[in-house]
TrEMBL record:
Gene3D superfamilies: Transcription elongation factor, GreA/GreB, C-terminal domain, Transcription elongation factor, GreA/GreB, N-terminal domain. The gene is greA. GO terms for biological process: DNA-templated transcription elongation; regulation of DNA-templated transcription elongation. This is Transcription elongation factor GreA. Belongs to the GreA/GreB family. The keyword Protein biosynthesis applies. Necessary for efficient RNA polymerase transcription elongation past template-encoded arresting sites. The arresting sites in DNA have the property of trapping a certain fraction of elongating RNA polymerases that pass through, resulting in locked ternary complexes. Cleavage of the nascent transcript by cleavage factors such as GreA or GreB allows the resumption of elongation from the new 3'terminus. GreA releases sequences of 2 to 3 nucleotides.
Amino acid sequence: MEMVDVCENRKPLKLFNTKVMSKVSYYTAEGLKKLKDELDHLKGVMRPKASQDIADARDKGDLSENAEYDAAKEAQGLLEMRISKLEEVYANARLIDESQLDVSKVLVHSNVKIKNQGNGMEMKYTLVAESEADLKTGKISVTSPIGKGLLGKKVGEVAEITVPNGVLKFEIIEISRD
């Protein structure tokens, strides 16, 4: 690990330079816009509100016994953590040109119709980035066990997916794109 000097004119403070591997996520234009809108809202609306809440609480007297001030500072800390996380996700987001995707196999943003070989039930899912996943609308994450198991499969192939109570087998019936 490399040491970094973070002070110029004072006694040097050494910190470890830790490099974190960032996960690249793939988004549709709609998903990327939604992510950017949330980030803009947090920075433009919620951050100033958090600062105002702290200022309002500070005006109420002694900070050592001011629970409202402590709560406002904690809320600000959580907000800054959320902003930082979203900035990292946005910096590592990649826009997918869906017209260039291979429709012969399951990839990110594929619409997949599968058949559970155990009970014969057919389901249709869209594989999306983790932050876009919403099971109610049929969008499952490519990082979920089912998503991982389906990736790269072609029509007619069977995906065997290990779950806590055994192995599920899904036959790929159809692959499409919107």
